TrEMBL record:
Function per UniProt: May regulate MCM3AP phosphorylation through phosphatase recruitment. May act as a negative regulator of ABCB1 expression and function through the dephosphorylation of ABCB1 by TFPI2/PPP2R3C complex. May play a role in the activation-induced cell death of B-cells.
The UniProt record lists the keyword Chaperone: no
Main location (coarse class): cytoplasm
Matches recorded under CDD domains: PPP2R3C
Protein name: Serine/threonine-protein phosphatase 2A regulatory subunit B'' subunit gamma
Organism ancestry: Eukaryota, Metazoa, Chordata, Craniata, Vertebrata
Species: Balaenoptera musculus (Blue whale)
Length: 343
């Protein structure tokens, strides 16, 4: 034992492997032992870590078989309808979704499937590799809903939980003022803090799939996933395409000015002193440090780790105001913390 941790050496590991029988033979190898060997000076591994490793391997194997049953074409990919069927049939096995009304199932499935396709099918081919599904953490999040004791915090941060799906769908219904099941540009403008610029919203409706100029729930989910995950490459790719008005594959001073002008106009409407574009442009280029000093590519934006800040500055007045007043807000937070400490 090391504290609470039970350890085992290689010799005993092999002995256990022999006793465990042929079914477990594949796990009791030198390769697996070496993989789990970290810093123990006696050359031992943690029994619990080995147990978890085997559990994970078996789970991945079972899940791969389970997903493959839905691979109609037998090519190692799932289409949207395949994944929809998989998740629909998974719902009854997840206790955390017991409370969902049957009438909401189709919206739940759509909400869940969208996350897989938004992040794993960036080229929008309409299919994703089963291997990619297994490699990402989304299935872990989904199958976490098997846990009957899942905390409220975990449910709120898990896209696949019932509260999260109901939140997203509830927002959609609240925005849909004329109750036609679709969102117009005017209805979408009330999303979040209702401070996104008209110029950006115009681009959303130009580039995204719409029906008679209105957005359906599936298109709305892509929009939400992009704005709620702005640090992720797939989300930045979505927003970058909207910012790249000339479709050149990069942002230049013209495109930055095109979007920031709308922020300046909103500032005037709200009685705020407009900020100089020159200053903001310099700050953006300083943050991103692109390879070409006059152009910002999508890769530059991703590499800089500042993509979320840059996009927010250009599309959302509230986001820009928060960025512009970040030092004052930090000082304010510190003062509030000090006041709490004093009390």
């Amino acid at each position: 034992m090391i504290g609470e941790e039970a350890m085992i050496n290689y010799e005993n590991f092999l002995t256990v492997g022999e006793k465990a029988g042929p079914k477990c033979k594949q796990f009791f190898t030198a390769k697996v032992f070496a993989k789990l060997l970290h810093t123990d000076s006696y050359g031992r591994i943690s029994i619990m870590q080995f147990f978890n490793y085997v559990m994970r391997k078996v789970w991945l194997h079972q899940t791969r078989i389970g997903l493959s049953l839905y691979d109609v074409a037998g090519q190692g990919y799932l289409r949207e309808s395949d994944l929809e069927n998989y998740i629909l049939e998974l719902i009854p096995t997840l206790p955390q979704l017991d409370g969902l009304e049957k009438s909401f199932y189709s919206f739940y499935v759509c909400t869940a499937v969208r996350k897989f396709f938004f992040f794993l099918d960036p080229l929008r081919t309409g299919k994703i590799k089963i291997q990619d599904i297994l490699a990402c953490s989304f299935l872990d999040d989904l199958l976490e809903l098997r846990d009957e004791e899942l905390s409220k915090e975990s449910q709120e941060t898990n896209w696949f939980s019932a509260p999260s799906a109901l939140r997203v769908y509830g927002q959609y219904l609240n925005l849909d003022k004329d109750h036609n099941g679709m969102l117009s540009k005017e209805e979408l403008s009330r999303y979040g803090t209702a401070t996104m610029t008209n110029v950006f919203l115009d681009r959303v409706f130009q580039e995204c799939l719409t029906y008679d100029g209105e957005m359906d729930y599936k298109t709305y989910l892509d929009f939400v996933l992009a704005l709620e995950n702005r640090k992720e490459p797939a989300a930045l790719q979505y927003i970058f395409k909207l910012l790249d008005i000339e479709n050149k594959g990069y942002l230049n001073v013209f495109s930055l000015n095109y979007f920031f002008r709308a922020i300046q106009e909103l500032m005037k409407i709200h009685g705020q002193d407009p900020v100089s574009f020159q200053d903001v442009k310099d700050e953006i280029f300083d943050m991103v440090k692109p390879k070409d000093p006059l152009k910002i590519s999508l890769q530059d934006l991703i590499n800089s780790n500042q993509g979320d800040t840059v996009t927010t500055i250009l599309i959302d007045l509230n986001g820009f105001w928060t960025y512009e007043n970040r030092e004052a807000l930090v000082a304010n937070d510190n003062e509030n913390s000090a006041d709490l400490d004093d009390t």
